From TrEMBL:
Chain sites annotated for binding Zn(2+): 63, 65, 211, 299
Keywords on record: Hydrolase, Metal-binding, Zinc
Residue span(s) of domain Amidohydrolase-related: 54-400
Name of the protein in question: 5'-deoxyadenosine deaminase
SUBUNIT field: Homotetramer.
Family: Belongs to the metallo-dependent hydrolases superfamily. MTA/SAH deaminase family.
Described function: Catalyzes the deamination of three SAM-derived enzymatic products, namely 5'-deoxyadenosine, S-adenosyl-L-homocysteine, and 5'-methylthioadenosine, to produce the inosine analogs. Can also deaminate adenosine. The preferred substrate for this enzyme is 5'-deoxyadenosine, but all these substrates are efficiently deaminated. Likely functions in a S-adenosyl-L-methionine (SAM) recycling pathway from S-adenosyl-L-homocysteine (SAH) produced from SAM-dependent methylation reactions.
More about this protein: SAH is a product of SAM methyltransferases and is known to be a feedback inhibitor of these enzymes. As a result of this inhibition, organisms have evolved efficient enzymes to metabolize SAH via different pathways. The pathway found in methanogens differs from the canonical pathway, it uses the deamination of S-adenosyl-L-homocysteine to form S-inosyl-L-homocysteine for the regeneration of SAM from S-adenosyl-L-homocysteine. 5'-deoxyadenosine is a radical SAM enzyme reaction product which strongly inhibits radical SAM enzymes.
Native organism taxonomy: Archaea, Methanobacteriati, Methanobacteriota, Stenosarchaea group, Methanomicrobia
Pfam families cross-referenced by the UniProt entry: Amidohydro_1 (PF01979)
Gene coding for it: dadD
Record pathway: Amino-acid biosynthesis; S-adenosyl-L-methionine biosynthesis
EC number annotated for this UniProt entry: 3.5.4.41, 3.5.4.31, 3.5.4.4, 3.5.4.28
CDD domains: ATZ_TRZ_like
Cofactor comment: Binds 1 zinc ion per subunit.
Amino acid sequence: MADIIVKNAYVMTMDPDAGDLKNGTVVIEDGKITEIGEKTSESADTVIDAKHSVVMPGLVNTHTHAAMTLFRGYADDLQLADWLEGHIWPAEAKLTADDVYKGSLLACMEMIRSGTTSFADMYFYMDETAKAVEASGLRASLCHGLIELWNEEKGATDLKEGKRFVRAWQGAADGRIKTMYGPHAPNTCSDEFLAKVREEANRDGAGIHIHLLETEAELLAMKEKYGKCSVHLLEDIGFLGPDVLAAHCVWLSDGDIEILGKRGVNVSHNVISNMKLASGIAPVHKMLEKGVNVSLGTDGCASNNNLDLFEEMKTAALLHKVNTFNPIALPAQQVLQMGTINGAKALGTETGMLKVGMKADLIVVDMKKPHLTPCFDVPSHLVYSAKGSDVRTTIVNGKVLMDDYKVLTLDEQKVMEEAQKTAEELVARVNA
């Protein structure tokens, strides 16, 4: 007997070898997909009728800072330096472990509701984010942010904490949590420190999550300090590889892209954050042409201001069309791959497509909505018309986290009320 059967669905597998089923069934047992077909002879404890809906792989957010939901709308429409130095950094300095837990719970709630089943997160007090992931049922790749700032003592302390976190939480929450090392960026960490991080990651078999060339300021600072850009510095110290997840990658040269492709580096494209902070436009089409695995991330809510990957997909598709003056740039199917298959590859998880034997991370998107009618092309609708709020059911690791728009793993009202109270108290401390 199976655990879950999802039936009467348009099954969008994202499996290039299988294609889609217009009226199909997905069977789940012991956290994995055991059958995909038109019908099944199996019975199950839970049967979900997905009529008028699309069943698809859960979306993967490859770069965010979950606890920054507490800063949603706190400081908008400001110059980057003022935004960071005058508002975000002073507020972050006042954060407590409990604040991070409450903010992370809110982020998990938002992601469950909008169809994200896995995410990569870099912040501090990361034990609290891990606890939120554990409670919510989501899948996550987590790392403690390491900001050495050319201070050897601080670097040693940060690296020790990063290592402790990597070892404490790897494989936790029934295997839903993976851990990584999280050096902040090449312009906030010395090359010697980055080399040490690489050594520790190799020793622990852990991946590395880093911000890379988000701004022109980073590019100029690196050239002034080292006489080369961030990518070439990382290449020279042997830092880059297929276990590296690089967020942003806006200010890349053609040579940088060649290196990223050659080394198998995974890139997280944070299109809305980059637009909101006026950081620039990442050369996504060039990266894809060179075989770089490009996925999608939202960044934190302070610079987005939500965690809706459907919105991220649409924005990416539209921006790169107008930026290249090419209406066929980043077509819907390719953007969906970035939000599913590519994201799963970047995090090294057996998700991102619906295939027998893979982990059962999937969502049910309700297509019986005015803005989704009529439907001629499902991928097109999912990218250009659908919203996170159209997700009616979310399943991770074979467990239903949201059923028919009701979140089952968290108390939604309590999470929102506590996050609101926490955010207000935090701002009061900042302004005291």
